[in-house]
Amino acid sequence: MSRGLDELAAEVVACRACPRLVEWREAVAASPRAAFRGQRYWARPLPGFGDPDPWLVIVGLAPAAHGGNRTGRIFTGDRSADFLVAALHRSGLASQPASVSADDGLALHGCRMTAAVRCAPPANRPTPDELARCRPYLIRELALCPGADVVLALGAIAWDAVLRTVEAPRPWPRFGHGAEALLDGRTLLGSYHPSQQNTFTGRLTAPMMNAVLARARELSRTGRKSRTS
Asked: Model pTM?
């Protein structure tokens, strides 16, 4: 499984299938924010990160322009990463409460983070065609994580992306915070995305994120065992 994930990661990093996304990620790197001036941006697609044999796979929307697109690791170097990784650490799924850079020593235990789209999109809005072109990567990543019996979708776009990976019959289960759906032996669990828009307004709070991760562990056979072992 680890070798397969490494091969997938290499293919993801080399991808240039979406001209709009290639242009945007490279333009952002060429004109960084003042706070990051002088830093060399990753400016390429991002593979998944975490445990190669997880019980939980977390699917986000896409890398942040000045987060993952800068640091080279998913959910690293931005406010969403701060919120999510702190919650993972409280839940025993991360080795440390911060995700600052690709070489900061962060390790995930029993979980893996990935995204529906692997390049930072303008205004955080990938097009349907871009989502479709990236979908095979998510299909393969989930297939390479057979022990992941829970998939946590952060936001409605990630929720829909996971449903499309299994060609779920319609009507689709509706996204919501705490929503659950059984898909091919896995449970799809929903959470609001840990974006500043949600966390700064209180739409998503730390206790809400804690509860979703606790529920994910309850739903997973392996997750329950890892808590008691």
From this structure: 0.95
